[in-house]
Write a structure and sequence with these properties.
The structure holds two protein chains of two kinds. Helix content of chain A is about 70%, strand content about 0%. Chain A contains three helices and no strands. Chain A has one domain. Chain A is elongated. Chain B is about 60% helix and about 10% strand. In chain B, β2 and β3 form a beta hairpin. In chain B, α2 crosses α3 and α4 packs antiparallel against α6. The radius of gyration of chain B is 19 Å and the shape is globular. The chains are: A mainly alpha, B mainly alpha.
Amino acid sequence: MISEYLIAGFLIIAGIFGFLGSFGLIKLNDPMSRLHAPTKATSLGVGGVLLASMVHGIAVEGHLSLHEVMITLFLFLTAPVTALFIAKVHLHRHETPDSLPRAGEDGIWATHNVDDGAEDKD
Amino acid sequence: MRLLQRLLPHPILTLLLTFTWIMLANSWTLNSLVFGFLLGLLIPFLTQPYWPQQMKVKRPLKVVEYIFVVLYDILLANVAVARIVAFKANAKRRPAWIAVPLELRTPEAITVLAGTITMTPGTVSADVSAEGHALLVHCLDADDPDAVRDEIKQRYERRLMEIFE
């Protein structure tokens, strides 16, 4: 009985955060800010579903499943990489070295560190 | 010894892959252990050209502490970002770029730091400087960019320094 409430609670939390993550994509008004909503709000959204699934596995089916832990791990490994790729595309197309803060002692960010004139196909 | 090092370029990765395979198979049998270990031998060997130097973890216990600090922060990050998305008007929000100078030099440590920044409160790491001495971070809503930079250095970089260097 308690487990049912627990599962329901996790699913509701997951639903709220999943919705807010997607809503952020529409509501936020510049491309870099839009990147924040899906990378974060969805991690708790997916996390809630996975927690509910684990509780269901233990309480209803009677065995501990570790697949959910793996999904969390893979999510944490892949989310920053996709976010970085999208951010890099944005830097290439919409930012110049002057529109960004100074890159410390190196003077230039890696994305802009390309030879002028050479066609950059990356 | 050198032969062992050539066959096993990343011992930690081998262990991790074996463990991952057992978790994926979801069965604690000799069968999955052996197959997982074979994958753990094969994958580091094949990917070695892309990851030539060996990684050293100086203080393994600190890794556990770091994981819990980051998990806790991810929880807070979700609530903070959700509140900004739901309640804060776009005109009032103050997005900002900040540069975080790095004291870390190990490439693996910088990668972990960049990943952590992306997963935690209102920040996404966007780029690294040409020689790897600074990180470019985008903040969703920063009234005080300097405070954000100091928190990243205090909370995450200091811990990673203890683990990797």
